[in-house]
């Protein structure tokens, strides 16, 4: 396979009548999915002839139509950029201006926000895509896609306040998907329940597993997670047997003893990635599902969902961290010390990744790209790029990789990756802000913003309102505290650790 749309051709040939995807309202077989995606791809080409290998925005909550739009963009020979429909307007403006996209496929309630964000391209409302079904294939541009061309672009948190656009190629997705389906035994009997929104890289395996191995995908709306008992019932009604969720979502079901009343029947596989899965919570899952396979995956968006994995194959006490394991196929992990040498076993170093899964870089930002994607320090004989993750890891006595923490101040909060520096950058937009520092209290799972103001204090509410205007809800601090000064460390930098200890 050289591009992802070829997998839809394959499923259309092999399993026309099998259910490919469904949400609360719509169900499509692979045959219907093919017709719909083909129709959308052709419409894009008709509306924007000549648009090729270019970003197209998807601005919509997830639904079967949004799923078809994602694939329709690929079908047209372009790549998709899913954006959170609830994105605050200032952040949306930054993304829209960085992208310079000519086309957006949007739900009706997204048009005003796109206009307000200065989007000057054309928009197509998603509902208008539904009647576009076609069995007749005409060339769209997809025949010209190379496996090194982009498939999607996701914006993640950036430390300068400007979100970074991570560009991922068809090859990176094909590489991961082939490994996943073969190693973890996915096939047409797999029924998935998608938890992550499409603008988050945790949704990538959900989007492509149906295409690669004929599985069925059930889309879960966010509200389903508000009522765990009903969620379990819904999973049973849909005969879901595989979950690829972030740990925070899995923990919603173990926080209270829901499984004592209601269990998911026939659960074969649970995969999690994106943040630390507390062993205590995993042990509750394992108690209720002794025959289910659990897999801890690790990876940043820059390496197409995951680059290491660990199939849980032994018992762990509640306090022992789970390994992130070993590299996925066609991937090498280097653990480098501060002199860029490989560490000895047991020593902590930065996890760096080699292989086809690496992102093509940050959209429109060569400087940042060249800082994170660098020549392997192990030789200079030919171009051999590694991605520096900024994550600290070490190997245990079994040679398994253990996650230690972030090298910088990036955190994971409620499943979202956040650079604390981004909150600070926005807070510095307040005229009276002299100094500020955001820290994360892991124990209470709270972001705290410490501030030094020219007025001396008393502006907590104003600061909160300012942040709310610019940042998504999950990035807002739980506490804002004004101080006379911030502590400094020996290098004269703000002493984050000392502040963290005060939290
Ligand atoms: P994102 O790009 O949003 O997927 O976030 C990537 C970051 O999440 C990584 O750089 C890690 O810091 C963290 N992460 C991902 N998977 C794991 C895991 N299994 N255990 C601990 N941290 C993880």
Task: Describe the protein.
The protein contains 14 helices and 26 strands. The protein has 503 residues and is of the alpha/beta class. The chain has 3 domains: 1-9 and 19-169, Rossmann fold; 220-412, Rossmann fold (3-Layer(aba) Sandwich), CATH 3.40.50.12780; 414-502, ANL, C-terminal domain (GMP Synthetase, Chain A, domain 3, 2-Layer Sandwich), CATH 3.30.300. α1 packs antiparallel against α2, α6 (170-183) packs across α7 and α9 packs across α10. The chain is globular and about 70 Å long. The mean pLDDT is 92. Adenosine monophosphate (AMP) binds next to β13, β20 and β21.
Biggest sheet features: 9 strands, mixed
Helicity range: 25-40%
Strand content: 25-35%
Number of helical elements = 14
CATH architecture of the largest domain: 3-Layer(aba) Sandwich
Distance between the termini: 52 Å
What general outline do the C-alpha atoms trace? globular
Spans of at least 5 consecutive residues with low confidence: none
- Describe the strand arrangement of the main beta sheet, using strand numbers: 2-1-10-9-11-12-13-14-15
**Mean pLDDT across residues:** 92
- Kindly report the name of the CATH homologous superfamily of the largest domain: ANL, N-terminal domain
Number of strands: 26
Write out the distinct hetero groups bound to the structure.
Answer: adenosine monophosphate
Domain count: the total is: 3
CATH class (first level) name of the largest domain: Alpha Beta
Write the layout of secondary structure elements.
Elements: H1 5-14, E1 19-22, E2 27-29, H2 30-47, E3 55-59, H3 64-75, E4 79-83, H4 89-99, E5 103-106, H5 111-116, E6 122-125, E7 150-156, E8 164-169, H6 170-183, E9 191-194, H7 204-213, E10 216-219, H8 228-237, E11 242-245, H9 247-255, E12 269-272, H10 279-288, E13 293-298, E14 308-311, E15 326-327, E16 331-336, E17 349-355, E18 361-362, H11 366-372, E19 373-375, E20 385-395, E21 401-406, E22 410-413, E23 416-419, H12 420-427, E24 433-441, E25 446-453, H13 460-470, E26 479-482, H14 496-502
Parallel strand pairs: 1-10, 3-4, 3-5, 5-6, 9-10, 9-11, 11-12, 12-13, 25-26
Antiparallel strand pairs: 1-2, 7-8, 8-18, 13-14, 14-15, 16-17, 17-20, 19-20, 20-21, 22-23, 24-25
